Amino acid sequence: MKGDIGVIGLAVMGQNLILNMNDHGYKVVAHNRTAEKVDEFLQGPAKGTDIVGAYSLQELVDKLESPRKIMLMVRAGDVVDSFIDKLVPLLDKGDIIIDGGNTNFPDTNRRVAALKEKGIHFIGSGVSGGEEGARFGPSIMPGGSPEAWPFVKPIFQAISAKTENNEPCCDWVGNDGAGHFVKMVHNGIEYGDMQLITEAYQFMKDGLGMTHDEMQSVFIEWNKTELNSYLVEITSDILGYKDTDGEPLVEKILDTAGQKGTGKWTGINALDMGIPLTLITESVFARCLSSLKDQRVEAEELFGKKKSIVEGDKQVWIEALRQALLASKIISYAQGFMLMREASNENGWDLNYGNVALMWRGGCIIRSAFLSNIRDAYDIDPELSFLGSDSYFKGILENSTSAWRKVAAKSMEVGIPMPSMTSALTFLDGYTTARLPANLLQAQRDYFGAHTYERVDKPKGEFFHTNWTGKGGDVSSTTYNS
Ligand code: 6PG
């Protein structure tokens, strides 16, 4: 009997996905560039299963049922191209290559188009959930050649996480790089969620002087509220974790954040498309700032920074912080969905936002109860332009604004950096202001560069130039917008 699917790449994610597929009754052929890895896997975790090995790409191809489905679980970038180049001559028209790595979506756009010319289908799929997700149910976000989806769908939906209603956290996202785009936004949101949690932690630790056990209890309680999520849950575990000397391990970890690039891509993409994705972008910059450790240590001394003590009733502050975190999180998701909406329109992807929320409901790093509410919001209005306008989310934003402002103001007053929580509030203030000061900005542009402006008392699209100083000419510059 031939194999149902081949997987190339036996690092931890690849191995776990294979074992997951095997658990669901699929016959998997496993290949790795280094042959010993295949043997180690077959004699180790795969022992006693139906998984078979392939020691060359030709052997892999020969052992697979047609149309062949070959999933690459290798490092994103050139390695993917190199495997594609080697596989294509061995494949038949109609065969399917799947890239399950964290690929930047323009690469997937390119590969789908290039392989289409050769008659090979290509799927670029986000896979989220880390090692455990891959093994027992990840969130899977596939996009690319739609013709390939019916062949891959049963396998992917079987191995994916399921919601409480047993719906698979995997569905077709859209053409081209749509799957990898949605995974990129997932990761951007992951950056935002993580940053928000760390800001709440710093406010509690430095401002309120709370112990790790106290903070752990707060996160345990928060996890019983609308904030219920995987990241809040693991944060409570981390805060309770003691090093061998009985002290909290988290305080022994160097405060410089790493990043592999997906958050940065999300920010770059938002800038390219002109979407105010402020919270995620602040979260990326917060990681960049954290990496300037030596400079920060020097500057703290240079500026003689004082301890940032927050006075007042601790319980009142903790509840205010919870509300600020929740409201900021709504803004972050609202911005992320704005970005997806713009990308969908620009690329003709026809994204289904309710389905995206469903795919993120389980298995992935940002999984949370909150995503069910997002799905409901898009069920009510599939074209919702701002998530915060949905009645459920609008209610939360309105109820928490006062507490949120207090937390933001206090953090500014005492000097606790909370870039994401404060930028989220600033965003909402901007978004809900009918008249912003951009009129003055337009006047400045026109003053120094004759860039022209539109008038509130004239139809949009009609441009005016004023000779502000009496010295400039009447010739205006072109009025294109980038
Ligand atoms: C996931 C994660 C994963 C990502 C890590 C690390 O969905 O399982 O998003 O894909 O690689 O979270 O990302 P950073 O190194 O950029 O923090």
Automatic annotation (TrEMBL):
Domain 6-phosphogluconate dehydrogenase C-terminal, by residue range, is: 179-469
Q: Does the keyword Acetylation apply?
A: no
Q: What is the name of the protein in this document?
A: 6-phosphogluconate dehydrogenase, decarboxylating
Q: Which GO terms describe its biological process?
A: D-gluconate metabolic process; pentose-phosphate shunt
Family, according to the entry, reads as follows: Belongs to the 6-phosphogluconate dehydrogenase family.
Q: Which reaction does it catalyse?
A: 6-phospho-D-gluconate + NADP(+) = D-ribulose 5-phosphate + CO2 + NADPH
Q: What does this protein do?
A: Catalyzes the oxidative decarboxylation of 6-phosphogluconate to ribulose 5-phosphate and CO(2), with concomitant reduction of NADP to NADPH.
Query: Where is the catalytic site?
Result: K183, E190
Under Gene Ontology molecular function, one entry of this record is: NADP binding
Binding annotation for NADP(+): G9, L10, A11, V12, M13, G14, N32, R33, T34, V74, R75, A76, N102
Q: Which residues form a coiled coil?
A: none
Q: Which organism is it from?
A: Aliivibrio fischeri (Vibrio fischeri)
**Pathways involved:** Carbohydrate degradation; pentose phosphate pathway; D-ribulose 5-phosphate from D-glucose 6-phosphate (oxidative stage): step 3/3
Q: Give the enzyme's main class according to its UniProt record, as a single word.
A: oxidoreductase
Q: By its UniProt entry, which PANTHER family does this protein fall under?
A: 6-PHOSPHOGLUCONATE DEHYDROGENASE
Going by the UniProt record, its keywords in alphabetical order are: Gluconate utilization, NADP, Oxidoreductase, Pentose shunt
Enzyme Commission number:
1.1.1.44
Q: How does it assemble?
A: Homodimer.
Q: Where does substrate bind?
A: N102, S128, G129, G130, H186, N187, Y191, K260, R287, R445, H451
